[in-house]
């Protein structure tokens, strides 16, 4: 097994294999096609699966076998396709397998030193109808959950190989089946407590989580410290348009504040470019984020992913340009309602504003002022001390936000030393996001703007501000 995020693929990795399996998301398609081409050149049969080929199998005609959907209960069909001659497609036929068939992942094959976090899955599917989301297309709207025994076996597998640290429950909506998750959490709490809470947990959920106090309390007790919420937009019109009705039932600022105060840090997902959006949406997003304690605000332009309700609607309307590559930092893959130059300029300026050192650390301090002190259950490991030393150098001495980093660290210590590890992690994340925005996101958006055939001047108030690192 090779994870190309952390190490290159050598010819020796391919030579021993009878068949080469490749999986990934749309943003990873260029790399997937490169691996397929290399393997075929060496005479190996190629098999591709995962999210990208499941939603757009026609884009992988270069593979010998295209496997769509989930694998449980379908291994015989996969083996038969591999053993057959010529190109084969194993269609999912809307198959929704019993997730109790999922085996314990082979965590022992991983080189743990390369990873800051591990992943586990409890459920698949989401009960909501968001127009832009492909999760319900891939996994359906009836959430299926693993048994408590399965999850404990997976946690034990990680524990037994010596892993200690953070675990991401990768469910697209951890509380999609609230009845079952409420039964599971007390068992998870007991497992964690018996072992001294070796894992700090985080996940994704819908905003209605904030309306269930007992569920939130159970998550915190089990060791969850943060949650990603698809907030999307402060615009009620945009939320209605997207079918995001669950976000209209509560004040979104209150959702974030409530979860923060009881022990769950909110990571927020936001979208610009809905049909109902006007140029005012960028200031509305900026204002919302300046008032809420969300250090990690992830903002993207609306994208029409293959197989989604949004993609089908835009195709009917004659507005779909191309299939999405999964990259949100270029021109949208459909004709937007907003003037495209206004959309790109507004998005670029919003990203620049959100990830200056001052804006980012302001949001961190807002969180620190509201948050319940972390429980500090996990023991300090040697690698934690090494992380502190590296962070002191790369963030505290030469980082772009070094003054604000030390200010956050002092502020965290004054509240309680238990906040110090959180502040160190936020320094690492912040430096990455600031540099990534300046050196990668903004230049790519600027190239997208230059690519527009409409060369009319941008309004002065939407012009992209100069890059402080390159301006003369």
How would you sum up this structure, described in words?
42% of the residues lie in helices and 12% in strands. The protein has 2 domains: 11-90, Rossmann fold; 99-368, Aldolase class I (TIM Barrel). The strands form 3 sheets. It has a 6-stranded parallel sheet. Strands 1-2-3-4 form a 4-stranded parallel sheet, sandwiched between helices. It has a two-stranded antiparallel ribbon with strand order 6-7. Helix 13 runs antiparallel to helix 17, helix 14 (357-370) runs parallel beside helix 16 and helix 16 runs antiparallel to helix 17. It is α/β, with parallel strands linked by helices.
Spell out the key features of this protein.
single chain, 472 residues, alpha/beta, Rossmann fold, 2 domains, 6-stranded parallel beta sheet, 4-stranded parallel beta sheet, 12 strands, 42% helix, globular
């Amino acid at each position: 097994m090779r994870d190309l995020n952390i190490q290159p693929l050598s010819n020796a990795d391919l030579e021993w294999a009878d068949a080469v399996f490749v999986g990934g998301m749309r943003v990873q398609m260029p790399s997937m096609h490169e691996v397929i081409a290399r393997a075929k050149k060496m005479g190996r049969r190629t098999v591709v699966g995962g999210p990208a080929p499941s939603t757009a199998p026609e884009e992988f005609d270069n593979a010998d076998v295209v496997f769509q959907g989930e694998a449980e209960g379908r291994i015989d069909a996969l083996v038969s396709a591999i053993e057959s001659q010529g190109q084969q497609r194993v269609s999912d036929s809307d198959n929704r397998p019993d997730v109790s068939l999922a085996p314990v992942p082979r965590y022992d094959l991983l080189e743990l030193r390369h990873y800051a976090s591990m992943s586990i899955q409890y459920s698949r599917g989401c009960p909501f109808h968001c127009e832009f989301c492909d999760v319900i297309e891939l996994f359906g709207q009836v959430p299926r959950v693993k048994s408590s025994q399965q999850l404990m076996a997976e946690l034990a597998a990680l524990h037994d190989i010596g892993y200690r640290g953070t675990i991401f429950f990768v469910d697209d909506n951890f509380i999609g089946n609230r009845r079952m998750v409420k039964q599971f959490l007390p068992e998870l709490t007991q497992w964690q407590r018996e072992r001294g809470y070796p894992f700090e947990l985080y996940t994704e959920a819908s905003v209605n989580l904030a309306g269930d106090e007992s569920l939130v309390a159970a998550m915190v007790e089990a060791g969850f410290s943060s949650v990603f919420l698809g907030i999307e937009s402060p615009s009620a019109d945009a939320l209605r348009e997207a079918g995001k009705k669950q976000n209209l039932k509560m004040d979104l600022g209150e959702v974030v504040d409530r979860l923060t105060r009881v022990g769950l840090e909110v990571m927020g997902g936001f979208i610009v470019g809905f049909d109902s959006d006007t140029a005012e949406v960028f200031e509305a997003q900026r204002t919302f984020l300046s008032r809420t304690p969300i250090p990690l605000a992830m903002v993207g332009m609306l994208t029409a992913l293959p197989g989604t309700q949004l993609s089908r609607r835009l195709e009917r309307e004659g507005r779909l340009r191309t299939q999405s590559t999964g990259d949100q930092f270029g021109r949208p893959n459909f004709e937007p309602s907003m003037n495209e130059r206004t959309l790109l300029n507004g998005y670029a300026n919003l990203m620049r504003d959100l990830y200056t050192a001052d804006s980012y650390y302001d949001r961190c301090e807002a969180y620190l002022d509201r948050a319940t002190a972390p429980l500090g259950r996990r023991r300090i490991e040697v690698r934690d001390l090494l992380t502190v030393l590296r962070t002191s150098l790369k963030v505290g001495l030469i980082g772009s936000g070094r003054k604000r980093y030390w200010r956050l660290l002092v502020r965290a210590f004054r509240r309680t030393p238990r906040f110090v590890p959180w502040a160190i992690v936020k320094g690492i994340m912040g430096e990455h996001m600031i540099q990534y925005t300046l050196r990668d996101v903004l230049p790519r958006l600027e190239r997208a703007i230059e690519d527009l055939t409409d060369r009319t001047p941008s309004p002065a108030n939407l012009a992209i501000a100069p890059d402080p690192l390159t301006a003369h």
